[in-house]
Amino acid sequence: MSAPEKHPEKPTVIIIGRPNVGKSTLFNRLVGKRLALVDDQPGVTRDRRFGEAEIAGMEFTIVDTAGWEDDDPESLPGRMRQQTEVSIEGADAALLVFDSRAGVTPLDEEISRWLRAQDIPVVLVANKAEGKFGDPGIFESFKLGFGEPVALSAEHGEGVADLFEHLWPIIGAKSEARDEAIELAEEAGEDAPLGPLKLAIVGRPNAGKSTLINRMLGEDRLLTGPEAGITRDSIAVDWEWTDPSSGEAREIRLIDTAGMRKRANVVEKLEIMSVQDARRAVDFAEVVVLLLDATRGLEHQDLKIASMVLEEGRALMIAINKWDIAQEASSLFNGVRAALEDGLAQVRGVPLFAVSAKTGKGLDQMLGAAFELREAWSKRVSTAALNRWFDDALEANPPPAPKGRRIKLRYITQASTRPPRFVVFGTRLELLPTSYERYLVNGIRAKLGFDAVPVRVVLKSPKNPYSKK
After folding, report:
1. Which of 29, 75, 226, 374 has the fewest Cβ atoms surrounding its Cβ within 10 A?
2. 128 is in an annotated binding site
3. How confident is the model at residue 305, as a pLDDT?
4. Where does this protein hold GTP 1 (predicted)?
């Protein structure tokens, strides 16, 4: 069967403005959920964040950007500005947001001059315009040269309908064309395309997560630098990877996350929010890569992150980054492998890779294994095959009989996938030792092809009709 034809892309709208004018609040309003971190202090957003927005049936991709600051290009704010400048490439429209209550500032005027030199339609947005307090700033904004601004309150949702009226003449035709293509495909009974592999990169600060993703993409898509903790939001990037072994193009949604330090060291409100956001990204992912720093090896915090990923039921891989500068590489690799076997008792044989974000070493091998791991994570075994294994497992190692009371294990079924969950039915299961449960879990992994996937086994006894309710 041929691969389904891709639908036309949605129009893309980018949000631009100086720090703390409410860009991320507007982004969250348009996507209908809290995806971007929002705080009173300026400079919370540092990377581009993409979301799916809709206003009155008009669908488009909305891009949140870092606040535009007039700083040295080599500084962190300067590199954030460069990310914003790059993000305008390929966009269909730009929303220039300013704070109507603060009025037009010199930095607003600088951004306007830059935008006028670009080949992109601009919609001027006067945010924080609830009540009459923003009126003077709205009248003042006509001098920016973009016509009448859209007066709205991103926090309260006022004025979004007016934004639709300004955007429709710019992107409406492209949005409609995409909707029509999708309807025609559905009427023709075409298969829906498979979803991309949701792959999250997690780890301690400065392990090289953003640099690794930039290497995969072949562009400086994510902000990087020597400063630890640059990434604050969890940033998702859709990407197409060509598998060198087959030549097949495979879709991946890469998710970069904020670095996770020891809880005792996380005291600032913004970092707490960032770590919480990273945890939500793990829950959204299918496969999670825990990135280690070869110059620091495996630390206790890494094991805590790995355990958290497994507890969430995600498929886990470990990658040792900066392999190009690793000292005593063979000893390091074997030491990390041994420490993982000791420290992650709930899952044996977690895939381990040596990679380099600088040279690209090991990345194709790691990505190919990620697809295989997702396949195991999504696998379903027939009840007949499952119970044939179950009978053999019980015969090879019968359950114990504590105090002479026999534990009966009758049959097993797979209740769900992603992660795989199994239910064992029997009697006196409350007496079954934890060691025997581990025996069953390890057998499921080894004999049924679940490898290093986190497996759940639930014990279920029939209700006694004579027991007191």
Report:
1. 226
2. yes
3. 86
4. 17-24, 64-68, 127-130
